[in-house]
DUF2155 domain-containing protein (Nitratireductor aquimarinus), 122 residues
Amino acid sequence: MATLAALPAQAERLQHPVAEFTGIDKITGRIISFDVYMHETVQFGALQVTPRVCYSSEETEEPRTDAFVEVDEITLDREIRRIFTGWMLAESPGLNAVEHAVYDVWLKACKEETEVPPPDAD
């Protein structure tokens, strides 16, 4: 007779419509925070950042914020080259941040709203 082992309860993950990123331009030393709606692309220097999903844990749970992100680089030849596809973790920005020769980008938070106007619905 097989017995089922008790599995730990899976905490509820909250999905958000906006991801907040931080980027640094290593040449100028400029640090900027920017918000991006899911499936929209924002350009930071030569990088194009597109979040696909952004999750956070409930306030009663241990903090955990992550986003699945695609980052493309616009080369000097004006070609677009994918340099990152994967999960970014806000609590461990150095783990999966995009480290480029000139620009670094990492996830800061997931948000419900932003002052950035929403993309046009065509």
About this structure: The longest strand covers residues 47-57. Residues 35 and 116 are 7 Å apart (CA to CA). The chain has no helices and nine strands.
